[in-house]
Amino acid sequence: MNRFFLSCQACLVVCLLIWPPSSTQAEEGASRSEVYKNVARLAAVGDKLFHDPRLSASGVLSCASCHSEKAAFAPDNALSVQYGGVDMAQRGHRAVPSLKYLQNVPQFTEHFFDSEDEADESIDNGPTGGLTWDGRANTQAEQAVIPLLAFFEMGQQAPQDVVRRALSAGYGEALKALGPYLQTTDLFQVITKALEAYQQDWRRFYPYSSKYDAYLAGKTVLTPREHKGLELFEDPEKGNCASCHKSQPGNDGTPPQFTDYGMIAVGVPRNRALPFNQNPKVFDLGLCGPDRTDLKQYAEYCGLFRTPSLRNVATRQTFFHNGFYHSLRDAVAFYVLRDTHPERIYPVGKDGRILKYDDLPKQYQENINMDPPFGPQPGNRPVLSDDEIDAIVAFLKTLTDGYSDTQKRSDATP
Ligand code: HEC
Ligand code: HEC
């Protein structure tokens, strides 16, 4: 039996199954297109709300002020943390993450079993997933409530204030029209769902248009330097970066997300420039608080933050949860110098001792990850040479979206 016959036969079975269309299928088709229309409407309102400063108490700050599309939905400045609040003089204590490639972040769980290892339930990857650096929001709608109401961000007192602002800005009709589709009359809910729908537009938020994606698709080659960087990134004895920042497609063909969504303590130095850190007794402990409040009593979670995707990381001007680093090279060098040359990473105390892991109280320091590239003792040779760090940085630059668009455009121009 040849392949043509086989596919023909398969087609016949399918054709008989779907033809003639029954009235219920026709109805389903109609309601499906109705759903698409509603989702598109919701996303269009979300797009406007996302860019509208009138929703904030100051009247000048929108989601897009901190999450700028031209900077992969992260800030287009190099501040460690951004200004906000009713007077635009307040600052939080966390760097603004990119909003790209969040579509696969799993809901937060304390025990994550990788679906690819399903057969072996014994591999528990520990706390994983959830939105924000500490995973405390499970959906983008839930997350949107946080900046709208945070006193140091958009600064509204209560959901009704946000709704009132949206109504006076002329969104009333659009929001009310979407209520029935979302089965709610609560306009605040419609607002947060619209912001969520906007962030699910793949063309903007997960286009997979980087040079590395083109390389995986066999449409381009990496330079020898980029290729060397990729090898070092994946080599368990060298960068070992890919053990957390996954660089290969999943078994089901999902493009690599450059994160396994795991919660890890890497021991980033304390950012002493943050107002939040002026009090030496105050610490941002990630999973165990203070922003997140449900896991306070778990000492083993203190210092853990979610592994971010490294897609578009070269467009960032601020790195890690507290924005301590401002160059990608320094952020990469941190990994290999942290334990071999702590004097180049951490400050020195009054007694001349190096204040290693200075953003985590002593009793939690055993939570800090010690796997390669971390680990070797002070004085040992770092696992990556200066030249190898540069090669990894060159590779990370291939993760910036827009490469295949540029390719297409330059192919089109004679
Ligand atoms: C003043 C700056 C600022 C504004 C305005 C702002 N954000 Fe953020 N955003 C942040 C910071 C900082 C974080 C990290 C928060 C944390 O980890 O607790 C964040 C995190 C997020 C995340 C989670 C990202 C991830 O990696 O899990 C989403 C989604 C998000 N913001 C969407 C929005 C939306 C929608 C708005 C508007 C309603 C908005 N943000 C307004 C600063 C801002
Ligand atoms: C054990 C897991 C793990 C390994 C291995 C690892 N990372 Fe990370 N990476 C993380 C976590 C967790 C964070 C966020 C930590 C924080 O902010 O406190 C992070 C953050 C980063 C950031 C900052 C991104 C941003 O948006 O601010 C960069 C850059 C980075 N990693 C690059 C690398 C490179 C390069 C390697 C290999 C040399 C590597 N990582 C190895 C878990 C890991």
TrEMBL record:
<dbReference type="GO" id="GO:0046872">
    <property type="term" value="F:metal ion binding"/>
</dbReference>
<dbReference type="GO" id="GO:0004130">
    <property type="term" value="F:cytochrome-c peroxidase activity"/>
</dbReference>
<keyword id="KW-0560">Oxidoreductase</keyword>
<keyword id="KW-0732">Signal</keyword>
<dbReference type="GO" id="GO:0009055">
    <property type="term" value="F:electron transfer activity"/>
</dbReference>
<feature type="signal peptide">
    <location>
        <begin position="1"/>
        <end position="26"/>
    </location>
</feature>
<feature type="domain" description="Cytochrome c">
    <location>
        <begin position="224"/>
        <end position="400"/>
    </location>
</feature>
<dbReference type="InterPro" id="IPR004852">
    <property type="entry name" value="Di-haem_cyt_c_peroxidsae"/>
</dbReference>
<feature type="domain" description="Cytochrome c">
    <location>
        <begin position="41"/>
        <end position="153"/>
    </location>
</feature>
<dbReference type="GO" id="GO:0030313">
    <property type="term" value="C:cell envelope"/>
</dbReference>
<dbReference type="GO" id="GO:0020037">
    <property type="term" value="F:heme binding"/>
</dbReference>
<keyword id="KW-0575">Peroxidase</keyword>
<dbReference type="Pfam" id="PF03150">
    <property type="entry name" value="CCP_MauG"/>
</dbReference>
<keyword id="KW-0349">Heme</keyword>
<dbReference type="InterPro" id="IPR036909">
    <property type="entry name" value="Cyt_c-like_dom_sf"/>
</dbReference>
<dbReference type="InterPro" id="IPR051395">
    <property type="entry name" value="Cytochrome_c_Peroxidase/MauG"/>
</dbReference>
<dbReference type="InterPro" id="IPR009056">
    <property type="entry name" value="Cyt_c-like_dom"/>
</dbReference>
<protein>
    <submittedName>
        <fullName>Cytochrome c peroxidase</fullName>
    </submittedName>
</protein>
<keyword id="KW-0479">Metal-binding</keyword>
<keyword id="KW-0408">Iron</keyword>
